[in-house]
Amino acid sequence: VSQSRYNKLVDKSGNVIGDSLKDVVSKVPKEKATSFWNYMLNLHNIDRAREGKNVFSGVTSEQSQNTVNKLLKENPEFEKIGKSITDWITKFRKAWGVDTGVLDEDIFNELNKTYKNYIPTNRVFTEIEKVGRGANNVSGKFIDLNTPIKRATGSERDINDPIENIAQLLNRIVRAAKNNEVGQDLLNAVRENPKNMSIVTG
Q1: What is the helix (H) or strand (E) element at residue 152, kind and residue range?
Q2: Rounded to 5 degrees, what angle do the CA atoms 166, 168, 170 make?
Q3: Helices in 19-104 by DSSP H: which ranges?
Q4: Is residue 151 within 8 Å of residue 161, measured between CB atoms?
Q5: Disulfide engineering: 49 pairs with which of 13, 19, 61, 194, CB 3.0-4.6 Å?
Q6: Taking the CA atoms of the chain, what radius of gyration do you get in angstroms?
Q7: What pLDDT sits at residue 18?
Q8: Would you place residue 86 in the very low, low, confident or very high pLDDT band (cuts 50, 70, 90)?
Q9: What angle do the packed helices 61-74 and 77-93 form, to 10 degrees?
Q10: What are phi and psi of 8, to 5 degrees?
């Protein structure tokens, strides 16, 4: 849903509002993928650790900042690529979260201020745990791109492949937006013709 037939990011009306996730993520050098996602996770941890919600157990904001500085010194291109990914995620969340009524705009803005370099950090669960959570691999539904990094050591549990985590975020928000749209349509139908709808819903 998040990518039109032209392989672009679209809003709920089908208007193109950006590049596809595949195009944005493909800018990550394959030979540096592990270092890049380590950079992204530490960049996010700078803000998360200040809130006591560490991405990496026991890793402080200062330690993550040092890691980020070191990685940027060795790979200055990471900064531009990373910003393009976080900007894409923000644009997607705005279009499919805020603009569809799933996410309150004030909360969205506050989250963006608090976590300026947000990327999802879903944790690895065992097969037994996945059954209760209804989890599955959804990355293939949105992008055809795998990364060499499959998990990163995080807080208590390892972190899933970052690209799969982004794809799962897309799936959750789009599903919520579609469910919300159906609910709003039903509510409007009841308001416009309550007698007939009472017969239908019986």
Answers
A1: strand 151-152
A2: 70
A3: 21-25, 33-50, 61-74, 77-93
A4: yes
A5: 61
A6: 19
A7: 93
A8: very high
A9: 120
A10: -130, 165
